[in-house]
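Entry, Tuesday afternoon. Goal for today is a structural model of the target with glutathione bound, before we commit to ordering more compound. Inputs were pasted exactly as handed over by J.K., no edits. I checked the ligand SMILES twice against the vendor sheet because last time a stereocentre got dropped in transcription.
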Amino acid sequence: MFSLYIGNKNYSSWSLRPWLLLTELDIDFEEKLIPFDDGNSWEKFRKFSPTGLVPCLFDGDIQVWESLAIVEYLAEQYSAVWPEDKTARAWARSATAEMHAGFSAIRNQCPMSVGLRIKLHEVSAPLQQDLTRLDELWQQGLDRFGGPFLGGPTFTAVDAFFAPVAYRLQTYALPHAPRAQAYAHHLLSTQGMRAWTDAALKETFREPSHEEEFAQLGVIQKDLRESV
Ligand SMILES: N[C@@H](CCC(=O)N[C@@H](CS)C(=O)NCC(=O)O)C(=O)O
């Protein structure tokens, strides 16, 4: 059986990706949630991950780190990881790689918090550019492959990679096109995302550095997490 090491569900966007893929594809795995240590997790995480980062997957004694490598490792055993159609598969791999390496303004200026609702002080020009590209990319996938997922009728790795963005659009009420909104809503309503959301909202752990960052980014309007 697989073991997947992840961080706190409220914060850890990279952990969400392979966790959601395994969950939505109904692949059996053991979840190993190791809480962050407020910027000092490196030594603790190095015990199971060579980069000191989560996620990290074990398949027996085979260790796979980096979310994209985990997805490709799983794809060797489960064809449902990528869309069946060759064109959709090529598009999904490209969009997934773009998410993994790009969208840095969304990732850095809107860190993931499942439970907070924040009104940003400003939507910077780089953030607006990422949002414009996101609308374009999502619309393209949905139009070309017929939805309701980005690569066609089934949930695949490309949806898992954009799942944290669905949380970010919700948390920061980021401006986006109606089509993108409908897709984000659809993602948030999958059984896997509902399970992740429920668990994240139950977490009583708070990482001070993350919490401080949220408070600096804008006005916190709601905190839906269980109180500490
Ligand atoms: N490129 C890596 C990114 C992994 C990453 O940055 N993980 C964050 C959590 S979302 C982490 O482990 N941070 C350590 C910490 O905050 O102490 C991947 O794709 O897996």
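The chain has a mean pLDDT of 97.
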